[in-house]
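Quick log. Single chain, no ligands specified.
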Amino acid sequence: MLFNSVMFITIFLPLALVGWFLLQKLKNPVYARIFLVGMSFWFYGYYNISYLWILLASLFFNYCISALLEKCGGHKGRKWLATGGILGNLGLLFYFKYFNFFIDNCNFFLHTNISLEKIALPLGISFFTFQQISFLIERYRRDAAHYSFVDYAFFVSFFPQLVAGPIVLHSELIPQLQSEKVRRFSAEGFYDGLTLFILGLGKKVLLADSLAVLVNAEYANIAALDSVSAWIVIIWYMLELYFDFSGYCDMARGIAKMFGFWLPENFDSPFRAVSVRDFWRRWHMTLSRFLSQYVYIPLGGNRKGKIRQCLNLLIVFFVSGLWHGANWTFVVWGLMHGGAAAFEALFPKARFPREWMNRLATALFVTLSFSVFRSDSLEMAALLWQKLFTAGNQGMFLGICNTLNFPENYAVLKLLGEAPPQFVNAVYLFCMFLLSGLSIYFLQGSKAEQWIEKKGHTTTGLFCLATVFTWSFISLSQISVFLYFNF
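-> predicted structure:
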């Protein structure tokens, strides 16, 4: 089920909220928890019921490992159990996400002819697998309790963060579930959550989906681009990805707030970053935290000299790239960021004298690297980079503008149907500059929760929220999945 769907907004979410708060009136809170776990399973299985069985199998497997760790007192036995549990999770992830990638590369490099299997990638498997791996590590370290099955199932399956994060730690969610505070309805918390959801919905539907129209059309037509249009395409993809993913996270955190829960922030103005490492402190922050705590620091972090630190950074970003998908484009993208982070560690004083210069250089590097991330193959990425730097200006700008066909400009274009072509072109140009301007404006503006605090309770703020929600809801006929559902 998608947050940006009529089914979710008009049926699922109201039903879940009403059921949750009504059941909280019972003396035993377990009934409300069971209800919300059940609703989360419905949410996940709605898209494809077979995915639900995979989630349940993963959940039961990890809970059994946790139970065995509770009974096992010896260090060696606990280590074997935790290792087996982690390998089991990685094995599940490998089969569904990387098996065909592995076979395809074996066929290429070893000249074998092994048949590929038809394997559907379950939604969110990377997210709920990493979340459970973190729990097993904490259980092995004795930093996590063996919770009841209902509480553990809630931690794994809580639907706002189930499919695309943020990646939540047990210490962040389960204590909230077990507190008395979450049982009481808070009108202020509900309003702030609803407001955050609406702002995230606007980011996704009005900005990301509009940007995607041009990006998808031109990534399928790279051979025809010139340098000017190629730069516009990669910049617009970076904007699309940001508004799509940060919009999802705002919606997820907003929904959680409506239920009385706090989820960790996943974005902190990433395009204000002054270095690549700073960018990753601001972008997909919960993934960066996971990789830092469970990969970088165990490898030695920065405690064993600069060379070892650089190697650790390359390993971490290699894992990050591979986590995002089974394609060499993700691996190369990850190594590009790892190489940049290693360079910054080796030469910390290699900086521009002005902060805006460092921001611009970081944004340029990130945008170029994400063009590889978006490409279907390394060959496509190489062709795109060739276009960026050698294709000149062949007058493609107006051509890519003409891909911007939206329901909003349909009526205007209909009226201009009999008008000279330059007036029609003017509408497309207006859409191009309007979307670019709005995207840059919101990119540099306040974060959603800062806006809510300052303006969310004012008359002007309420009018803006009503407008955004109405416009977004009307546009839901063009439902699109979130980009990070693919990862």
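Residues 75-110 form the longest helix (36 residues).
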